[in-house]
Design brief:
single chain; about 575 residues; alpha+beta; 12-stranded mixed beta sheet; 7-stranded antiparallel beta sheet; about 30% strand
Length: about 575
């Protein structure tokens, strides 16, 4: 394998002794050249080198360097680091063809081997980045490259099927289609596909509306045969268990955790698209990393954030100054600890998390895996909307309570917690709860504060007339002012949940599935609420209620269905809550 390093221009002064070298080239074993920008620390601060190296590999343009959430690389260079920001294959200035995730393991490992010989690198390398840049770290780490000392994967997933694209059988439609259109725009420009580029740019200009295009597998912006296949592949490869071409397993790091042997600092957000993937990645490495050393040095920070930005406000909700966690300072302490032997991360808790409602940080020794508090569904048969009689209580049903019934109409689906645009955040659900096409169950106001941390799950005994069906569950905190603040949600599709046991329309079956993780404090006088529906569009793709796959369905193939929820002695539907003791941090 041959590699070369060269620079097309000279070194640029960035002030305070920091220097930038643009367009540094690394030629990989297959002849493809990747391009990176390198930032060198001030000699007055860090000496003449070599220095520890920070690497970010990303597909959005190396000059951006994820500065939407992180300090500029110049800031890290000022603190004594050689920083390399690289365009991945087929993006920015790098050669080759981009296919999301496919080449990042080998390309990342070869880049690290090349950096190890770079004259600015002292042999100790750390990686950082969020979203796709988090995935490039995990995919490189699975190769166990020499010189990689630690990583900081934020808001990403090890298991792309379950943690990034699908949630218990339902496609995360808005995020998948929106991100796919975003990524294909550069592919169209690089290939000089003018008509495809125009279609993609028009779609991007109104990206929130694209989820309403049906059938979405034939969205005109993504079906051009001259464009890469990756977006179409995400949509068409719906079942990892029966995929003859091992599409998802080739990208699934969660089955190869034993090959990762480095400490990792995971950052997630309660309202991030990839929240469940982030938490699952932390747990997988905590339990299955390839050495006791790596397993003992996995850390998780779970904040109250959406994907972008990370701060103290989402929509109209002010989360308090504590939400403005200094993540750059946290990263610096992390890298100083592992790359400079400073020891300054030694006192950090294993899990640090922000509890919604209390709006403050807490610490935990481990992420909880149990949901010990069960709240049972009750009603007089009319739990429809928040005007109905649905209740949640610790007492199980004592007699044959009437069933709750609602109609699911895919033409007029219940919209996502953030409304028709599927916005993320603690949005007030009061208006959405007025519809009779969902069921609402609420506890009495609590006498003492209840602290939640973990992953809620539901057990629903249900019957539906649909040939294929979904159920969604949404957890809500009802404040003393009457605000119904969204905490988390989950979905299960019959074709996924009953793929082994078999699904039967009009038969009572047990739907048991998890919601996304959360942390919240239900203060004295507040209530906890559960909403049950059959859609959360366009957060998840809508189920047509027929045998036609959702990606191929349109308004000609949609069918209404009638859903029944039971809460009886024999069929005690329930919400299972992860109640936790907590200590402030």
């Amino acid at each position: 394998m041959t590699r070369k390093e060269e620079s097309s221009i000279g070194v640029i002064d960035c002030g305070n002794g920091v220097r930038l070298e643009r367009d540094v080239r690394c030629t990989l074993s297959d002849g493809v050249t990747l391009v990176s920008d390198h930032y060198y620390p001030p000699v007055s601060v860090a000496g003449s080198g070599p220095w520890p190296t920070l690497l970010m590999r990303q597909p959005y343009g190396r000059d951006i360097a994820s500065t939407v959430v992180y300090a500029h690389p110049v800031w890290f260079a000022r603190h004594g680091y050689h920083v390399a920001i690289q365009d991945v294959r087929g993006r920015g200035g790098s050669e080759g063809e981009f296919y999301a995730f496919r080449h990042e393991s080998r390309d990342g490992a070869e880049t690290i081997a090349w950096l190890l010989r770079h004259p600015a690198c002292n042999g100790r390398i750390g990686m950082y980045g969020f979203s796709y840049q988090g995935s490039t770290q995990l995919l490189a780490a699975v190769e166990n490259p020499e010189g990689l000392v630690c990583i900081a994967p934020h808001m990403t997933a090890c298991d792309l099927y379950h943690g990034w694209f699908y949630h218990q059988g339902a496609l995360r439609l808005a995020s998948t289609l929106g991100w796919g259109i975003q990524m294909l725009r550069e592919d169209a420009r690089r290939r000089n596909l003018c008509a495809a580029s125009d279609r993609l740019e028009a779609a991007w200009a109104n990206v929130r509306a694209q989820s309403s295009v049906v059938p979405y597998a034939k969205h005109p912006a993504i079906i051009d045969p001259e464009l890469p296949d990756y977006v179409r592949d995400w949509i068409l490869h719906r079942d990892p268990d029966t995929d003859e071409h091992t599409f998802w397993s080739e990208l699934d790091i969660s089955t190869r955790m034993e090959k990762i042997r480095v400490p990792a600092l995971h950052i997630s957000g309660w309202y991030d698209t990839y929240l469940e993937g982030s938490i699952a990645g932390y747990l997988a490495l905590r339990n299955h990393a390839g050495s006791a050393y790596a397993r003992d040095h996995q850390y998780l920070v779970a904040g109250p954030w959406i994907h972008i930005p990370w701060g103290d406000r989402i929509g109209d909700r002010q989360l308090g100054l504590a939400a403005n966690l200094d993540t750059d300072g946290l990263l610096l302490r992390w890298f100083n600890h592992w790359l400079k032997d400073s020891g300054e991360f030694a006192e950090e808790p294993r899990v640090r998390y922000f509890a919604l409602g209390a709006d403050q940080w807490y610490a935990a020794d481990e992420w909880p895996t149990e949901a010990p508090l069960s709240l049972y569904l009750h009603s007089g048969g009319n739990a429809n909307s928040r005007k109905g009689d649905g209740l949640l209580d610790t007492a199980a049903p004592q007699f044959e309570e009437p069933r709750d019934i609602f109609v699911y109409d895919p033409e007029v689906p219940v919209v996502a917690p953030g409304g028709p645009q599927a916005l993320s955040g603690p949005y007030d659900q009061m208006a959405l709860e007025m519809g009779n096409n969902l069921l609402v169950y609420t506890t009495a106001p609590v006498a003492n504060a209840v602290h939640l941390l973990g992953q809620p799950r539901v057990t629903l005994y249900a019957a539906t007339s649909a040939a294929n069906a979904d159920f969604t569950a949404k957890l809500v905190r009802v404040t003393t002012s009457g605000r119904a603040e969204f905490l988390c949600s989950g979905v299960a599709r019959s074709s996924w949940l009953f793929r082994a046991s078999g699904y039967q329309p009009d038969a009572v079956q047990c739907w048991e599935f998890t919601l996304e993780p959360t942390a919240a404090v239900i203060e004295a006088g507040e209530s906890l609420r559960l909403e049950i529906a059959s859609s959360a569009f366009p957060l998840y793709d809508r189920n047509p209620s027929t045998e036609i796959p959702p990606q191929h369905a349109d308004n000609w193939s949609w069918q209404r269905s009638t859903q029944q929820i039971l809460h009886t002695v024999e069929h005690p539907s329930a919400l299972h809550m992860p109640v936790s003791g907590a200590r402030p941090w």
